[in-house]
Amino acid sequence: MTDAIGYERIGDIAVLAAQNPPVNALGYDVRVGLVQGIERAEADAGVRAVLIYGEGATYFAGADIREFGKPPREPFLPDVCNRIESSPLIVVSAMHGTALGGGLEIALSSHYRVAVPKARMGLPEVNLGLIPGATGTQRLPRLTGVEAAIDLVTSGRQIGAKEALDLGVIDKIAEGDPREIGLAYVRELLDSGAPRRAVSELPAPAPIDFDAAYEATLKKGRGQLSPAYGVRAVQAACERPFAEGVAEERRLFTELMGTKQRQGMIHAFFAERAVGKLPELDGVTPREVKSVGVIGGGTMGAGIATAALGAGLSVVLLEMSAEAAEAARKRIEGNLSGALKRGSLGQDAFDAMMTRALTLATDYEALSDVDLVIEAVFEQMDVKKQVFTRLDAVCKPGAVLATNTSYLDIDEIAAVTKRPQDVIGLHFFSPAHIMKLLEVVVADKTAPEVVATGFALGKRLGKISVRAGVCDGFIGNRILKTYRTAAEHMVLDGASPFQIDKALTDFGFAMGPYAVSDLAGLDIGWMTRKRLAPTRHPRERVPTYADKLCEAGHYGQKTGRGYYIYEAGRRAGIPNPEVMELIEAERAELGLASRDFSDDEIVRRYMAAMVNEGAKVLEEGIARRPLDIDMVFLSGYGFPRYHGGPMKWADMQGLDKVLEDIRTFAREDDYFWQPAPLLERLVEEGRTFDDMNREAAS
């Protein structure tokens, strides 16, 4: 047997122990060891049952990611699962830690399953653009029924032991060491004369309207194929004999393996793990952060404070008045109440956060002992400078001074302090306690340990932290400004904001750009346009109709009217007819003739602008790697994960085709559509953005 699976005999029980740290991934040696272990147990005279468990922190936590992209080697996991289940011996799995993907499929192939109370399990393959491919979609419905199986297969969510027991995924929960509870359960089964119970031999569940379930799943996934394919695989479990269902699962799995969506999802998976690994931080120790100051208790500041409290930090929140501080407290309380209602936060923890961990203040002196302070005040340079001048005077030596600015020059902000090395940008996205993205913006004089502190804080807060350089808008908002400009040009030339929103949600975005503007507040873009007006190039095409909405007090969702009208009790808005009236008046004033835009052209222009500006951001060093841009948009801007991010999308389209589009669009506007030199070089050299990622990692 391989060293990855240990074999031990205890009376009439053979014990197979996974020994493949750190997570007992189902690599080649583990698969071989499981098959050999079952065969040895069957040949071992007097053995009546087999116990499978994992040594260390977990049961089998899933596939071995080191094998991704490599040719598969026999024995394949479906064959391992079927070999386990076909054993004439009683096979029991004792589960702890996590049993995910192939790990859960191994457990489902056992005849009985016992788990510790804190064990978690699930089938997360949809998050890689796939479906379970080792009989999971065929065995699970026979235990849980169709609806629960579809939920688990299409959502990829993890469930705890109690829910797993209620659904029939496991048979028993027991406290203790997995080896000991496993042995006790096997002994109980043998003593009671329990029969061998193969899941594949259980009756198939009653079918449902699978066509309706398929369409609903496709719509919910905004075009992602893998969850919908999961519905079809479960359908096969209901309508076909087990062996034929397994063959259909394998066919669907193989078909998904060849899709661009799977490429995009795999890229996102690895990019998320690589984005926080920066060579510049190797060996750099972050500063200790136990207490955080937050200046400003509006939506953003309250969200940042909520995230910090949830991470176990003490928070001093500074506001201008006692009334404003109390309003901030209520916002934080409201944010935490959601977690309390969901059960993810206990009442005692909630009370401790609100009464002991949170301090409200109206005097800067209250920040004199915090380890790190984040300002979240009005987006205006003179206001930011005033704040940092005060912080420089009151904060202790070594405290990190962070700005949450979305656009402003952090070097200019740092220059008003006597400690520019301690100043950094920590750009959160609203709502800050929910949104995953954190741009860690590194100014010219920011010390390496301060950068490391920003990343350490982001990790503690559960954020996906991305390094960014200083420019107007950093990575995300700078690129957003460009593709939003491309959308505005299309509106002036004949498209409607509502057609653009629909085309882009059909592409897979969570929201279109105009619905996003309503959510963020139209006053933000209005303020930015006014700020940039003095330096605007005369050839820039900047529409004014949105300014007229703002002048009328229509800022989007917070005022009930923007591009859309938001009626009480309805989450989604309906198109505001006033918008098209303003657009048509502006077209007439400018003497523009309208033309039709297909949805395909809308997407191509929007994406070409995004990719082209992304290439410029890379060339300037604002982003270090293409994957950094991808993670910004996947985690902060609602970019469809199955496209992998804008730079990965461009690779999959072909950079030559994207460049050809840009050059075509430049014939009508060579000021806006200027091909990025980096993009031109990559095409000329036959290289991709993925090549740049690999070079950065080497």
Automatic annotation (TrEMBL):
One of its GO terms (biological process) is fatty acid beta-oxidation. Pathway: Lipid metabolism; fatty acid beta-oxidation. Residues 473-566, 602-687 form the 3-hydroxyacyl-CoA dehydrogenase C-terminal domain. Belongs to the enoyl-CoA hydratase/isomerase family. Its main location: other. It is found in: Peroxisome. InterPro entries: 3-OHacyl-CoA_DH_NAD-bd (IPR006176), 3HC_DH_C (IPR006108), 6-PGluconate_DH-like_C_sf (IPR008927), ClpP/crotonase-like_dom_sf (IPR029045), Enoyl-CoA_hyd/isom_CS (IPR018376), Enoyl-CoA_hydra/iso (IPR001753), NAD(P)-bd_dom_sf (IPR036291). Keywords: Fatty acid metabolism, Isomerase, Lipid degradation, Lipid metabolism, Lyase, Multifunctional enzyme, NAD, Oxidoreductase, Peroxisome. It comes from the Bacteria. GO terms for molecular function: (3S)-3-hydroxyacyl-CoA dehydrogenase (NAD+) activity; enoyl-CoA hydratase activity; isomerase activity; NAD+ binding. Pfam families: 3HCDH, 3HCDH_N, ECH_1. This is Enoyl-CoA hydratase. It catalyses: a (3S)-3-hydroxyacyl-CoA + NAD(+) = a 3-oxoacyl-CoA + NADH + H(+). Residues 292-468 form the 3-hydroxyacyl-CoA dehydrogenase NAD binding domain.
